[in-house]
Structure formats: C-alpha cells, structure tokens
Amino acid sequence: MASLTPQLVSLSLHLVQRAGVDVEAFMAILRGSALYAPTFDKKLAKELADDYANPNFPTAHLRKDLQLFLQAAAGAGLNTEGLSGLERLLERATAAGLDSLDYSSLHRLTAQTGER
C-alpha cells in the first residue's frame, strides 16, 4: 500500500521541522535508506510550498482506492487495522476541502493532532 509510506514521511517532515532539523539533511538520510522512494522528493516541494493544485492523483481517488482495498482484504480475512489511521485521515479530507487536491495535501492534516 504505497499511500501509507508517504504519510509516514509527512509526519517525519513535520517532526523534523518542529525540532529545527534541516529538511535537506533529513532527506539526505532518507534518500540513503531502504525506505526511500522517488515519490518522496516529488511530493516534498508540494508539501513545503503547501501547494497541491494540479494533482497527479486526487485525494478522493486515494480514499476510494483504499476503501476498495480494505473491502477486498477484509473479504479475504486479512487484518487491516494498520491502515485504520490512514482511513480516518482520508475521511477528514472531504471536510478539509482536500478531495480535489493532490493526495499529498494530507500533509495539512498530519500537522494536526488527531484522535487516537
């Protein structure tokens, strides 16, 4: 599920910024790790600029795809609780006006404390 990892990077980005860590230093470490994917750099500029116009994949599509995946996985008897946080975040996206924006706009929501 490729959508969960960018959310972890988003949270990490918020964390390093709030801690005063240089974003490029963080990215240099991430780029050298097994967790890195080129999408992180592609979305980084959008996240830093808070500009999610011209989406290559809208948030509403991500929510739809995640819901379809969760239905199929549950139907196969798999444990999907690891994706419940992302599902809740995507449910909040509509009220936040993010549905038509790039899915990286969820970065706005990861900056806020959510319910556990």
Give your account of this protein's structure.
This protein is 60% helix and 0% strand. With 116 residues, the protein is an all-alpha fold. It has a single domain (4-110), classed as N-(1-d-carboxylethyl)-l-norvaline Dehydrogenase, domain 2. The mean pLDDT is 90.
What would you call the shape?
A: globular
Helix content: 55-70%
The overall pLDDT average reads: 90
How many beta strands in the DSSP annotation? 0
Element pattern in H and E: HHHHHH
- C-alpha end-to-end distance: 21 Å
Number of helices: 6
Q: At the first level of CATH, what is the class?
A: Mainly Alpha
Percent range for β-strand residues:
under 5%
Main sheet properties: none
Overall structural domain count: 1
At CATH level 3, the topology is: N-(1-d-carboxylethyl)-l-norvaline Dehydrogenase, domain 2
Full CATH superfamily name? N-(1-d-carboxylethyl)-l-norvaline Dehydrogenase, domain 2
Structural class: mainly alpha
Examine the secondary-structure arrangement and name the CATH architecture: Orthogonal Bundle
Fill in the keyword field for this structure:
N-(1-d-carboxylethyl)-l-norvaline Dehydrogenase, domain 2, mainly alpha, 116 residues, 6 helices, 60% helix, globular
Task: Itemize the secondary structure elements and their pairings.
Blueprint: H1 4-18, H2 23-31, H3 38-49, H4 59-75, H5 84-95, H6 106-110
